[in-house]
Design the sequence.
């Protein structure tokens, strides 16, 4: 590719979906603006590949250049500034805050949860250090003055993918995609209501349930949400599909890379299966996830994406490049596969002593029936993101948790308050 891997998602159609990743970190004390502003601008020095501005080259290509201007921190309002605007000093990120909440906003082009979380943790580390005058013991957090990891800015290339045929391909069952919800959420101003709900769990409760039923963390939430939808979806839908994003960087030998390279994993459940044995469901789900994660089985999707990005370099004109990316989007078209809902898990994050000052953290994204799972210390958090009023889905999910005797805390719904990129 001629330009940074991070630039190619910038071409995607942003009229409806803004591709902003918003991380909400709830502290145990009220947020101090002056300390947060200082911490944000100390922490960003550790991540030069995130401190960038967008420019357009002569051939119409987006490119990223270093941006040493101050990272902007503002109070939370109903109308936040746009990414890459002058209001945020041309950055593709900024912070806002209210009460005990710190919100870290970043363009999804630069990274997803895998690449965002280190920046989030470094920022909160520095905030705790400055606010409380301590040196938190948090060896897993990248410190503001620590060097970049060996592969942190390495970009994926075709030669990193094995040149072997896949050993397995999942045959889906065409689950429903909640089209009416999406249409209302995207185009109906009387129905569109982007919001999210937060759940918190004790890690031991989720893990005890997982071990008892041969589950992983992802498969637990796959099955719990599928069972919830089984309660509310029309009987005409014979299948409920779960989908998760898979980050194959480890299998490509560049686990520390910040880039947002994803493949997708699907598990479809017959409605009758969801009324059956939980251990069977857990074993089936974990097996499918493991098979589809194998680099040999997801390499075709990676090759297609990298080929699209490389072809874009041969097109002249910004609008023409954007059109090509849009028309070749692997998530659209007759061959695209989707689940009824999406559930992503960034894995357990080790916050060390910083975790003592943090009540919770969740990811907020555009999308509908999208579950984002995060974890720290002895806690697991979940945000369910909606485009419309998702009350019936939340109630059904809570009912399943009660049926399975899984204790939880729930808060919300809250408005997503996402911001778009200024073009």
Sequence:
């Amino acid at each position: 590719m001629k330009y940074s891997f991070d630039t190619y998602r910038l071409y995607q159609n942003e009229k409806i979906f803004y591709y902003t990743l918003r991380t909400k970190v709830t502290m145990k004390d009220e947020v101090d603006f002056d300390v947060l502003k200082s911490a944000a601008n100390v922490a960003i020095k550790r991540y030069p590949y995130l401190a960038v501005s967008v420019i357009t080259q002569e051939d119409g290509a987006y490119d990223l250049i270093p941006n040493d201007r101050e990272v902007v921190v503002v109070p939370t309002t109903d109308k936040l500034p746009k990414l890459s605007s002058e209001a945020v000093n041309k950055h593709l990120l900024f912070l806002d805050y209210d009460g005990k909440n710190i919100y870290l906003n970043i363009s999804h082009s630069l990274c997803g949860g895998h690449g965002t979380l280190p920046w989030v943790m470094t920022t909160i580390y520095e905030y705790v250090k400055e606010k409380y005058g301590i040196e938190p013991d948090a060896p897993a957090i990248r410190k503001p003055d620590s060097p970049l990891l060996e592969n942190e800015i390495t970009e994926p290339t075709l030669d990193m993918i094995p040149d072997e045929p896949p050993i397995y391909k999942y045959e889906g069952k065409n689950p429903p995609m909640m089209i009416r919800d999406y249409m209302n959420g995207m185009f109906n101003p009387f129905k569109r209501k982007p919001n999210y709900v937060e759940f918190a769990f004790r890690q031991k409760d989720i893990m005890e349930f997982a071990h008892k039923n041969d589950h992983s963390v992802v498969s637990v939430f796959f099955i719990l949400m599928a069972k919830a939808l089984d309660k509310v979806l029309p009987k005409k839908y014979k299948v409920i599909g779960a989908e998760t994003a898979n980050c194959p960087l480890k299998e490509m030998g560049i686990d520390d890379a910040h880039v947002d390279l994803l493949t997708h994993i699907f598990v479809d459940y017959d409605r009758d299966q969801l009324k059956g044995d939980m251990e069977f469901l857990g074993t089936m789900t974990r097996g499918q996830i493991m098979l589809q994660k194998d680099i040999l089985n997801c390499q075709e999707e990676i090759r297609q994406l990298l080929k699209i990005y490389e072809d874009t370099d041969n097109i002249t004109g910004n609008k023409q490049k954007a059109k090509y990316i849009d028309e070749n989007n692997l998530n659209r078209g007759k061959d695209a596969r989707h689940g009824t809902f999406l559930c992503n898990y960034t894995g357990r994050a080790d916050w060390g002593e910083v975790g003592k000052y943090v009540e919770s953290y969740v990811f907020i994204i555009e999308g509908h029936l999208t579950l984002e799972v995060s974890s720290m210390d002895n806690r697991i958090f979940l945000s369910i993101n909606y485009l419309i009023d998702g009350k019936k889905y939340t109630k059904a999910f809570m009912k399943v948790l009660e049926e399975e005797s899984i204790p939880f805390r729930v808060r919300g719904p809250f408005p997503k308050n996402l911001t778009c990129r200024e073009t």
Summary: The first strand starts at residue 20 and ends at 27. Residues 52 and 67 are 5 Å apart (CA to CA).
